[in-house]
Amino acid sequence: MIESDDFVNALREAGFDFFTGVPDTILGGIIDALSRQRLYVPSVREDEAVAMAAGAFLGGKVPVALMQNSGLGNALNVLLSLHLIYKIPCLLIVSWRGFEGKDAPEHLVMGRAMPQLTEAVEIAHRTPSPATMADDLRWAGRAVTEQRVPVALFLKQGVVKTVQP
Fold first, then answer.
1. DSSP string of 48-65?
2. Which is the most buried residue in 6, 70, 92, 101, by most CB within 10 A?
3. What is the pLDDT of residues 89-144, one digit of tens each?
């Protein structure tokens, strides 16, 4: 398991410098670490988070939007009609609720559909493990700076330490 502070530091080393999103238990440790460093701008909805990320990019930042996978559905219109059309990059860190059918019932449908959903809208994704995280963050950093596209990291429970046991 990766410590939340180490994960945030790795994001910053990969070039990311604007962080927004909507809370989730899997992302809780990351959001806590970002908040303690005064780097996190909370959003009330996922579509707002990716819209704020677009504005941050246009202002010279390299943005990250954090969200639960159920919120990915809320963010799709902004991603498709703004980010993808105008080549506005953003790293999406999406908690993979409902992974392998293990979660509350409300997470299971999106948990199954998330990989195919992002592929259908041509958003590349990876599912990092502690062993692959450094390479996955380098990939994400290159994609947003060189290709100027949104990409996603699907974060399963237990990969990055959270604030809850």
1. HHHHHHHHHHHTT--EEE
2. 92
3. 999 999 987 666 677 667 676 777 788 888 899 999 999 989 998 999 999 999 99
